[in-house]
Design goal:
Length: 339
C-alpha cells in the first residue's frame, strides 16, 4: 500500500483507486470485508497531557487506535466515535436485506478517515453511458467530519466517480449524523433505509441533470472559457465582471505567465484532451465536458498514491463540484451559479 492509503479491499472489477485486496467477483459478508480491508480495529478517547510535564490539557482529548496507539485526531469532550464494525453493521441493514452488496472498503492515512461502498442494483443510462449506483458511507476518526451515507454514481466505461454531481438539489448532504454522545445508539435500521431512500431520490435528480447536459452542445470557445474558469490563473480570471460572458475572457499568452503558474496550462490542456477524446467522450456536449473533468480528477491529477484521498475528500472532489456548477447553468456562457 502507498503511504497515503492505509488499507483497502474490493469485490468485482478493480475500482478507480487501482489498489486493495481482491476478494473476487462474489458476494461477501461484512465480517470478511472488514477483515480483508484490515479495518477490524477500534478507537478510544484518551486524555491529553503536555509531554514531559504530566499537565493535563483541559477539554481536549485524543482519538487513538487501540491496536497501535496511533493518534488520529484531537477532539472536544462532546465527541463520540463510531467504530468501524458499527459502521458496517449500520449498512448491513440494506446489504443483508438484498438491497445492496459490499463493493469496496478502506481507510486513509492511519485510519483518520474510513469508507464503505455498497453497490445498488439499479443502473441508469445517459447518452449511451451506463451509470452504476452506489451508497458510500464515510466515517472519520479525526474529529473533522460527520458520519455520512451519500449516493455515488460511477460511470462504467471508465470507472469515473461522479460523486459530486447532485449539487443542485436538497439531497447533497445525504444521511448525516454528528459525532456527539450516543451516536452509535442513534444508528438504526430505519436510518439505513432512510439513506437508501435518499440515494434513490438523488439518482433521479442526477439522471435529469445528466440528460440535460448530454443534450446541450458545446463549442471550442465555450470549452476554452470553461477551462479558464475551472483552472484560473488568478482571482481576476476566476471571477470576471458579472456581465462578462465567460467564453469571452481573453486567453493569456503562455510566455506572459509567471513560471510558477504555467502548470495551469498543462491542466487545461490535459482536461481539454479528455473532453474531446477521453474514454467514451467526443467533445460535443456538456456531458462530455463533465466527464473529461472527472476523468482528469480520478486518473490524471497528482500522484497515483494520493488520488483516493483527492477523489473522496480533496482537490478532485472539489474540482468536480466546480465543474458541475459551471456546466449546469441556464445560459450558453457557462456563467456559474453559487461560486
Amino acid at each position: 500500500m502507498s503511504a497515503n492509503v492505509d488499507t483497502m479491499a474490493y469485490t468485482g472489477e478493480q475500482p478507480w483507486h487501482r489498489q486493495g485486496v481482491d476478494l473476487g467477483d462474489r458476494y461477501v459478508k461484512y465480517e470478511e470485508m472488514l477483515a480483508a480491508a484490515q479495518m477490524d480495529w477500534t478507537v478510544s478517547i484518551r486524555e491529553l497531557a503536555i509531554k514531559g510535564t504530566g499537565i493535563e490539557v483541559p477539554n481536549h482529548f485524543a482519538v487513538a487506535r487501540d491496536d497501535d496507539d496511533a493518534v488520529l485526531g484531537v477532539v472536544s469532550r462532546r465527541y463520540a466515535p463510531v467504530q468501524n464494525r458499527a459502521a458496517f453493521e449500520f449498512l448491513d441493514a440494506v446489504v443483508g436485506g438484498g438491497q445492496a452488496v459490499y463493493h469496496t472498503a478502506g481507510s486513509l492515512g492511519r485510519g483518520e478517515k474510513t469508507w464503505i461502498l455498497v453497490k445498488l442494483p439499479e443502473t441508469i443510462e445517459v447518452a449511451g453511458d451506463q451509470i452504476d449506483n452506489y451508497l458510500a458511507l464515510v466515517n472519520s476518526h479525526d474529529g473533522k467530519g460527520a458520519f455520512q451515507a451519500l449516493w455515488t454514481p460511477i460511470r462504467v466505461v471508465c470507472e469515473n466517480t461522479l460523486n459530486v454531481a447532485t449539487h443542485r438539489g436538497r439531497l447533497r448532504s445525504g444521511y448525516r449524523l454528528s459525532h456527539f454522545a450516543n451516536i452509535e445508539a442513534r444508528m438504526s435500521v430505519e436510518g439505513a433505509q432512510e439513506a437508501l431512500g435518499l440515494a434513490g431520490r438523488a439518482m433521479g435528480e442526477f439522471k435529469e441533470m445528466a440528460d440535460e447536459l448530454s443534450q446541450r452542445a458545446v463549442t471550442h470557445d465555450q470549452v476554452t472559457g470553461f477551462l479558464q474558469r475551472l483552472f484560473p490563473l488568478d482571482q481576476k480570471a476566476a471571477l470576471p465582471a458579472p456581465k462578462t460572458p465567460t467564453l469571452l475572457l481573453p486567453e493569456p499568452k503562455r510566455e506572459d505567465v509567471a513560471p510558477d503558474f504555467r502548470f495551469v496550462f498543462s491542466r487545461r490542456d490535459k482536461t481539454r484532451e479528455l473532453i474531446q477524446s477521453g474514454r467514451g467522450n467526443k467533445g460535443e456536449t456538456r456531458w462530455d465536458a463533465l466527464n473529461g473533468v472527472v476523468e482528469y480528477a480520478d486518473f490524471e491529477y497528482g500522484a497515483a498514491e494520493h488520488r483516493t484521498r483527492s477523489t473522496l475528500f480533496g482537490f478532485g472532489k472539489d474540482l468536480k463540484a466546480k465543474a458541475v456548477s459551471l456546466l449546469d447553468g441556464t445560459d450558453e456562457t457557462f456563467r456559474p451559479k453559487g461560486l
